[in-house]
Amino acid sequence: MNNQPLVSIITPCYNGESFLHRYFNSILAQTYSNIELIFVNDGSSDKTEEIAFSYKDKLEARGIKFIYMYQTNAGQAAAINSALKVFSGEYLTWPDSDDWMSDDCIEKKIDYLELHPEYSLVMCRTAKVFESDLSKSVSYYERKNKNKHNIFDDLISYEDVYFAPGGYMIRSKALLETLPTRSIYCGKTGQNMQLLLPVAYRRECGFVDEVLYYYLIRDNSHSRSSKTPEQIYNSLYGNENTIIQTLERIDMAADEREAYINLAKFSWSQKRFYAAIEFKDKASIAKFYREIESNGKINLKLRIQNFVFRNKLLSAIYNIFKS
User: Fold this and answer.
1) Domain-by-domain residue ranges, the chain?
2) pTM for this structure?
């Protein structure tokens, strides 16, 4: 009988044939053995299902419980909802199918949480890797303020946190206390905020200062230069809406919820404002500045930036110095 706590890994996947071998080999290589893997095929039209089933015997030979689920394409959040209904682990993590874990990723997170029962979730350093060169880490996601264990406000404003999903692990008990229906908001911006915010509300997060997760950056799709300003703005609006919808589902006092929603609106309107500056989009700079004004107090820095970037001469001078 295995006395290790059971860890549930939930992974949605859509058309993953080009990277699934790496993903499943990462699971097989784990030094931790008591694992329940729930793989949700989100309506793939390639060889995703064939590849997934080719690993079934290998996974079960390692003692890993393999649960395969299929749904008509509905997105990552809907796939997570399907898996939440059946997972049974004491701990939960949800890596993307194109990312991968270090061999000791699960073991070190479990060791940390078992040693620190005061924390309901843990995050680790995560390396960012371009798909053109998987051997080289280009930068890292990490927690700068490692001694601050309340990350709820930081998640809302997206400051000093990240959304590489497999970088986190949470206690299932904490999740189910706040999500008794085992259901999250199905927005278009993924599933991370909907899982992290309920657990982080009034609970603390630990940090493992080691690279235990590798986040793939698609060479042709993750750069801002490949997206239009409107796509960027809509994505930021989508993130804000997901946060607000998630806050609406957390049991808290009405005035507290209103304060957190205002924080979300203020924070994400600032992100749209800075995106507009990056695109030199004067009309949107003005629009998003008005949003910031309506959602919170404007500080001096924002006032100066708004004045500079709406003035043609000052904006040109700034761009020269920046270059």
Assistant:
1) 7-217, 224-322
2) 0.91
User: In Å, what is the CA distance from 290 to each residue of 44, 131, 265?
Assistant: 42, 39, 12
Mean pLDDT for the chain overall? 92
Q: What whole-number distance in Å separates Cα of residue 294 and Cα of residue 288?
A: 10
Query: CA-to-CA distance for 255 and 202, rounded, in angstroms?
Result: 16
E strand or H helix at 208: strand 204-217
Task: Report the C-alpha gap between 164 and 64 in whole angstroms.
Answer: 24
Lowest average pLDDT, out of 142-146, 162-166, 241-245, 311-315, goes to: 311-315
Retrieve residue 186's tokens: 């199905």
Helix, strand, coil proportions of the chain in percent (round to 5)?
45, 20, 35
Furthest CA-CA distance within the chain: 73
Which one-letter DSSP state was computed for residue 287?
A: H
Backbone φ, ψ for residue 217 (5° rounding) = -105, 115
Single-letter code of the amino acid located at 269: S
The CATH class given to the 7-217 domain equals alpha beta
According to DSSP, residue 236 is labeled H
Structure tokens at 126: 């995560």
Q: Which of 43, 39, 84, 96 is nearest to 195 (CA)?
A: 84
> What is the C-alpha to C-alpha distance for residues 318 and 9, in angstroms, rounded to an integer?
48
Alpha-carbon gap, residue 98 to 232, rounded angstroms:
22
